[in-house]
Write a sequence for this structure.
């Protein structure tokens, strides 16, 4: 289950920064690589900092495992990925590209969904000999 941050409560308790560590299952399968699936759950290790204007910065890592066939040689494999993530949350949204939160509560689901999507590799490769194709610029 994805936790929520109650910014008002944290401010009242003077907990302006802290750590979150949890596992969660995505609401939908984010993998678009043929013959590859996500091995649940996804692990999140995040830290938060509440700023003076009640905006909140969240930084940390997410880790997940993909299982399936190598995108080049079709060998069955499983590989663990770990990616750094960061997000910026503003109260009541102001039209910027940041994440918004309302009523003093941050729901991390959208942020985590985006983080997982942006962390997905284009393909799953089993070794140094089976690597992603290189694209040359003209």
């Amino acid at each position: 289950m994805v936790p929520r941050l109650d910014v008002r409560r944290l401010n009242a308790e003077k907990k302006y920064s802290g750590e979150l560590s949890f596992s969660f299952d995505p609401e939908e399968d984010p993998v678009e690589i043929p013959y590859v699936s996500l091995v649940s759950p996804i692990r999140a290790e995040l830290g938060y900092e509440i700023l003076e204007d009640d905006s909140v910065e969240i930084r940390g890592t997410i880790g997940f495992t993909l299982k399936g066939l190598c995108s080049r040689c079709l060998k069955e494999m499983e590989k663990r990925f770990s990616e750094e993530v960061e997000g910026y949350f503003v109260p009541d949204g102001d039209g910027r590209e940041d994440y918004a939160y309302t009523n003093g509560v941050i729901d991390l689901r959208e942020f985590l969904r985006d983080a997982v999507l942006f962390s997905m590799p284009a393909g799953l490769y089993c070794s140094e000999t089976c690597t992603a194709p290189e694209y040359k610029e003209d």
Notes: The chain has one domain: 4-119. Residues 65 and 80 are 4 Å apart (CA to CA). The first helix runs from residue 7 to 12.
